Amino acid sequence: MTHLQAGLSPETLEKARLELNENPDTLHQDIQEVRDMVITRPDIGFLRTDDAFILRFLRARKFHHFEAFRLLAQYFEYRQQNLDMFKSFKATDPGIKQALKDGFPGGLANLDHYGRKILVLFAANWDQSRYTLVDILRAILLSLEAMIEDPELQVNGFVLIIDWSNFTFKQASKLTPSMLRLAIEGLQDSFPARFGGIHFVNQPWYIHALYTVIRPFLKEKTRKRIFLHGNNLNSLHQLIHPEILPSEFGGMLPPYDMGTWARTLLDHEYDDDSEYNVDSYSMPVKEVEKELSPKSMKRSQSVVDPTVLKRVDKNEEENMQPLLSLD
Predict the structure, then answer these.
(1) Could you give one GO CC term from the UniProt record (predicted)?
(2) Of the residues 126, 156, 196, 305, which has the fewest C-beta atoms closer than 10 A?
(3) pTM
(4) Which has more pLDDT, 290 or 135?
């Protein structure tokens, strides 16, 4: 075991070997091979290329060198293309702070039976008058940056549960294809995290309609890991044990405290509320749409047409069967 693996338990070391092809004898060589590819992309500013940083990209791509490098390049390219998103990229930024305090995201205290961190989002908590969807995305990315420092989570990964209870049609109409595309690019294509499952619960019919819009942008591997449970929490419990879930998800624990993760990041500044004008943010959603590449905009340049949503059978949610494979 090298010093780069010092933070891993014996069980996780074995998992990294078997599932990720991580070999302590070739670890430094693997890292160097990825680092040597940096010169092939002079158009990108690689701000970090240290061993520990590159290692998380190798783990995210099961030590396939080229795939790990491509993810590393996309990580920095995404930040170059969306510079305003990463200005004041800290927990005390007013927009990020407000999103964090409303539970975007939340994190459960217990890991699942695979050692994965369980992230939770309660969609209806979004207060459109106080912060933007971009702020929520920034808060999620900032949180992942903090969590991915843990080598155990680099290997074991994350699970995401999104509760759509009481999420209104009006709120859903703000989820433009362009905004959703930006989120997918930031989370699926440009971040070194392993997501073992994304679970939708209590989703209304119009969220299912939105899912059909973004589905073409998702990798096949990601599609297989999205589970539409509707109101069937029993199917959720087949994949995540109710003993570690809060009562909102039919679990045995008390209701989730939305400020738990925010207090971890903000510490003593959690209660220091400063005024934040949502309209003053330098990159509102409309500007995000302009920032997207022409290729992206060609596929997703308009708001979801409500007439399309209305054509979706409102009872379809009741007929949706959750997927039951975590391939």
Answers:
(1) trans-Golgi network
(2) 305
(3) 0.83
(4) 135
